[in-house]
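[Meeting: bench + compute handoff]

Bench side (C.D.) handed over the final construct sequence. Compute side (W.E.) agreed to return the predicted structure before the next meeting so the bench team could plan truncations. Sequence as handed over:
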Amino acid sequence: SKVINYYHTSLIVLRHVANAKDVNAVLGYMEQTGKVPEVSPIAPPEVSARDTAELMDPGDYFNIQVRQNLKQSYRGLFSARAQFYDNFNKFLSYKQAGKLLDENYRLSVEMSEYKQVIFDILSPLTEQAEKELLADEPLKDQIMAMRKMSGTVQSIMNLYSRKHVLEGARIDVKMAELKKELEAAKKLPAVTGYDEEQKNYYSFLSSVESFMKDMQKARDKGAYSDADYNAMSEAYEYGLSVI
């Protein structure tokens, strides 16, 4: 349960501190040429000291190597984020993008990579923890299948959100993973006596199918689009825990 709590705290903090919409809005402002609307300097979104302390010092419910990797990833993420917003505020003072924009492109990808590393470390460990907690749950297989697909969708959206570089090959690999997970999920036998839950499960599978179609269309355009990203994150945010 401590592993799962750490995972959920991570999701909340990552959604708040390294939100792709916020990062891309900053980059979009810096990309403008000519007369641009005035904005005030902004500080990075605050994170609660308690959450930061927990994430930066995971407990012994993880092994030493995992703890070290999580600490390094969070330290790197928070440092890249602080530098990103510092560069933006320098840009507001001088209104000269040049090196600052290039640097913020690099930092935006760095933040996204740190998020991906954190997902990749935590996902299998959380899955293992949930299997143990759900041992006597009749719908265990369905719940685990939904969690796995949510994690894959999260990774795909994280890769797609990189405004100035389309991670086409990596998105394709993750889309192939999601397709396999969906096919396996469809084959799970229905559990009798849980009609409402089964209905919600099939609705979830339909959401995944819709997501895959929309992402493929966005991917086929060959470039990132704010409109496509926003439409997909709004459509799937609730059901698929996209961050």
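W.E. noted at the follow-up: The mean pLDDT is 87. C.D. will use this when planning the next construct.
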